Amino acid sequence: MTDIEDMGIVWGAGVTCSLHNWTFDASSGQSDSTRFVIDTHDVKEIDGHVFVSQKPKNGHIAGPRRDFGGREMN
């Protein structure tokens, strides 16, 4: 299991990558720091259970994708 600190730091509506210091908008997945885009997903909590959509909600945003490990996805 990975600690949340290894994944990034949440700042308002953004997430900063702890490995690269790139900041991504939590809604669009776009970054001012890099050309890469991260996929964003709808998340719900119901009765203590967390549900995450399988399909990214920002699939219409163009740009090369990276996963949270920094690997290019396409």
Written overview of the protein:
- The chain has one helix at residues 4-7, and strands at residues 9-11, 14-16, 23-25, 43-46, 49-52.
- By secondary structure, it is mainly beta.
- It has one domain.
- The longest helix is centred in the N-terminal third of the chain and has 4 residues, at 4-7.
- It is globular, with a radius of gyration of 13 Å.
- Residues 1-5 have low confidence and may be disordered.
- Residues 1-52 form the Rieske domain.
- This is Rieske domain-containing protein.
- One of its GO terms (molecular function) is 2 iron, 2 sulfur cluster binding.
Task: Provide the descriptors you would attach to this structure in a database record.
single chain, 74 residues, mainly beta, 3-stranded antiparallel beta sheet, two-stranded antiparallel ribbon, 1 helix, globular, disordered N terminus, Rieske domain-containing protein
Uncertain segments are: 1-5
| Coarse structural class | mainly beta
Distance between the termini: 25 Å
Total beta strands: 5
Mean pLDDT: 78
Question: How would the global form be characterised?
Answer: globular
Helix content: under 10%
Topology as H/E string?
A: HEEEEE
Total domains: 1
Determine Rg (CA atoms, Å): 13 Å
* Sheet having the most strands: 3 strands, antiparallel
**Arrangement of strands in the largest sheet:** 1-2-3
Q: In DSSP terms, counting alpha (H) and pi (I) runs of 4 or more, how many helices?
A: 1
Beta content = 15-25%
Keywords: 2Fe-2S, Iron, Iron-sulfur, Metal-binding
GO molecular function: 2 iron, 2 sulfur cluster binding; metal ion binding
Protein name: Rieske domain-containing protein
